[in-house]
Design a protein that fits this description.
Length: about 120
Amino acid sequence: MNPRKLLIIISQLALLALINRAGYMLAHRLSLRLPGNLVGMLILLALLSARLVRLEWIEEGASILIRHLAFFFIPIAVGLIAFKEVFLENGFAILGTLIVSATAGILLCGFIAQAFKKKEAELP
């Protein structure tokens, strides 16, 4: 790999890690009941939406992370063990919420895709 490209990817990964760390710090300082990594993703979304961070600045680094996404679920699965009591107490409510929200998301995506397909077919 080209040393310049490697430096660019490392810089992009560092920027993503910095935003992630900021999410953890913000969640801790404000005592939010949200995981720090989720807050970091919301910060990244806000930065991208406000065009303070351009997609090109993080695209290659993010694609590497996405390619290896499965490895990032291992710590999450291990971390869920710490919430054993929560799952035992509220397991059915959590499961019901997951099923309803997943179903709603799938249906919504399907309806939107069909609407776009119909609009596309109507174009000359």
